[in-house]
Design goal:
2 copies of one chain form a homodimer.
Chain A (H helix, E strand, L loop, with lengths): L2 E6 L9 H12 L4 E6 L17 E4 L2 E3 L2 H11 L10 H31 L3 H15 L3 H4 L3 H11 L1 H6 L13 H16 L9 H19 L4
Parallel strand pairs in A: 1-2
Antiparallel strand pairs in A: 1-3, 3-4
Helix pairs in contact in A: 1-2, 1-8, 3-4, 3-6, 3-8
């Protein structure tokens, strides 16, 4: 069975969404092959005839799944014999906390790079993106990004728990990566795809951890245009 | 078997340490009774003839355990049939992340209330506390605490992942509390014991979660002087 992902893309086809990257890494972790369709922000509401508001939307057998966490849960249920994404209900609950932390970090990164993401979209998508993100971030993209040094410092402060934890173990999942790792790896990949700020500068422990993800899933991460 | 905890205390006997509270909640969760000895900062190096630098130090049968996380691991191993603290090795790994996040939040709270904690110690302990904490926090306790509103805002920002997560489930552990919950509950209890700043003001979701912990472990949390 090959999964199919509607995968958020910039005007030049670069795959953008942290959550889409997390989904692709989760599929690879479970040994499920996948294809992708580049999808623009304004095309999301038409996927599968409508009803979806965010990506990834993943077609997996008869299912159409509109959330990366739900996809990971389905994969874990379908393939309990393959490498774990959660390792039990306790792992699912705790991964919700990591996911909340990842969203918190993402919000801080967005303040710095939303203006750069906007520049990488076509005109129609720029209008949608600017309107929705300025509402979300509470100001003009240019104004929110004006204090770049302050914005980067806030991101680095929010990364401290990941940095501390990596002193003691190679992955958030312990000896092997879990879906929690893929959530954060998706965020790092997102910043690399946008490419305007290197948030891992001076972050050796986090860079080394991302290197360990790349060592396992390099083929997935190198497919930056699908 | 009754455990014995060397439990950090202020000059008037109030039990202070977030990690001691986490240890006591973990013992109660596993149905292990315990006694405590109030212990001052400067007495920690003499516990059990020396060798310990932090509390809690817990005597459990033939073991003397110098770390709350290690205690929780021992309890889980000894009582796999009782309510879970981690629910498997994946849960242990992910709880390390929550623990790192809890330490991150604690550091931000310490900036605001370390000066108040200092005031609650006797003269000898004040000297130790001031010297060690001013080195840790990078300035005079009074200076670090000067911008109280800014300090509280930084704490509330760092609590965002917990706040987001609690929209979806009653405990960090899911339907029941895990050691991850007790780590954060210890921090809340610490701020209540110091009693100078109400960090849960306007934090209904977190206050409700702490209320659920109190509903289960009220007797433990009410024993503020052991």
């Amino acid at each position: 069975m090959t999964a199919h992902i509607h995968d958020l893309a910039t005007a030049d086809g670069r795959r953008l969404s942290p959550y889409c990257w997390a989904a692709k890494l989760a599929l690879a972790h479970k040994g499920v092959s996948f294809e992708t369709t580049p999808t623009r922000f304004i095309d999301i509401p038409s996927i599968g005839g409508g009803g979806f508001r965010t990506v990834p939307v993943t077609e997996l057998g008869a299912d159409r799944i509109g959330d990366s966490f739900d996809l990971a849960l389905k994969l874990e249920e379908a393939h309990p014999d393959r490498p774990a994404l959660f390792a039990g209900p306790g792992g699912v609950a705790l991964t919700r906390f990591v996911g909340a932390h990842m969203a918190h970090v993402m919000g801080k990164i967005a303040r710095v790079i939303a203006v750069d993401i906007c520049a990488a979209l076509d005109r129609e998508n720029q209008t949608y993106f600017r309107t929705s993100r300025e509402k979300m971030l509470g100001g003009r993209l240019e104004d929110v990004a004006a204090d770049r040094a302050g914005g980067v410092a806030a991101v680095k402060d929010a990364l401290k728990p990941l940095r501390i934890m990596l002193r003691g173990q190679p992955f958030i999942g312990g000896e092997d990566p879990f879906f929690a790792d893929f959530l954060f790896a998706g965020v790092v990949q997102w910043t690399k795809i946008v490419g305007t700020v290197d948030f891992l500068e001076g972050e050796q422990a986090i860079a080394d951890w991302f290197g360990r993800i790349e060592a396992r899933y390099g083929a997935v991460l190198r497919a930056t245009r699908g």
